[in-house]
Amino acid sequence: MSANKNFHITAQAIDAHDPELRELNLKLTQIHDNPETCYKEYKAHENITQFLEAKGVTVERHAFGLETSFVAEYGKGGRVVTYCAEYDALPVIGHGCGHNLICVSSVAAFLGVVEAMKTDPSITGRVRLLGCPAEEGEGGKIRLINAGAYKDVDAAIMTHPTPFASKMPEADGIAYGTCLAAVGFLAKFKGRPAHAAAMPWAGINAADAASLAYNAVGLLRQHIKPNDRINIIIPQAGTGHNVIPDTSTVRVSVRSETSSQMEELRTRVENCCKGAALATGCSLELLAVMDPYADLRPNESLCNEFTQNMALSGKKYYNDQSVRDLSCFSTDMGNVSYEVPSFHGNFCIQTDADVALHTAGFRDAARKPDAHALAMGVGKGMAGAGLRVLTDEAFATEVREDFKRDQAAR
């Protein structure tokens, strides 16, 4: 089956489902008023699984030991294509990262491939929709990997909405690009309380330790690579102005171009905290708050196929594989890309000027009808790419060989 035919078959199916997909997207965006954060996506889980079951799709709820994950699957034997649906929101802001659009585009792609397989019973293989909770900092996909959700997968596919990029304003999105590896930890300092005026010498000031750690990281930034990122806050550093604080907490996120570079930078940042503890006489406890997110390893053949599919609908996607375009976000889809051939594209939606991801402005843009329409177009591109993996042995081999070459280069 040709790439063009793949695209047109799945595109027609997605258009047929669009009215109901709009309703599903509306249900997801309504969660803005009551954001469902990591592992608490109960309404989203119920809305999506009910929608799929009404379509006659077999769904396993609460899959892989995660209460808000699910698996929907169609077909038998052969290769497996998985579409990853994210639907968690940010605290207070809601879908400031547009996960409602990620979800609905993956649902659309899945249904498009299902309809193509129903139309042509000779197509072997399985198409899967995997519910992926807790992307925003708690690594839901990492837990899914560990539970075996990707062990038989030949291609994992999803897209993420983004504002238009100033460096490529003519593009409708990015097909080939990567992101930063990331990890987060808490530094908890323990000192000794004392009256801040009567007996300050009797205390050991944990707030001083937090302040020293914060400033040491600030000085470290002068000596890190251009694409490294260190984000640090002090969420707790005392309870009363007249008491020497005996406890404080520093929250740190560290990001680098690759997982190995990220681990090296984490050690340097941890040393800043250790030095602050030593200087003030505090004890220090370092606690992980998220599993490490790997950098994204895009599969070249999947990127090419998606780009070609989107061109059929008049959309231009940046896909320069001679330049590994780096975006400074992080995602647990990076960990998936270390396990199986993966595609994580970015599609641009219209926003007001200077609106960034993880803001109320982007949340509001992601709930608009034109953003939904763009997500449906992206779903068509993903569907065509996935169907080609199932139907074209030579293309599936290219995808596997790309993945093997990347494994050797890591």
TrEMBL record:
Signal peptide: none annotated. Gene3D superfamilies: 3.30.70.360, Zn peptidases. InterPro entries: Amidohydrolase, Bact_exopeptidase_dim_dom, Peptidase_M20, Peptidase_M20/M20A_hydrolases, Peptidase_M20_dimer, Xaa-Arg_dipeptidase. GO terms for molecular function: dipeptidase activity. Residues 183-276 form the Peptidase M20 dimerisation domain. It holds the Pfam family Peptidase_M20. Belongs to the peptidase M20A family. NCBIfam families: amidohydrolases. This is Peptidase M20 domain-containing protein 2. It comes from Knufia peltigerae.
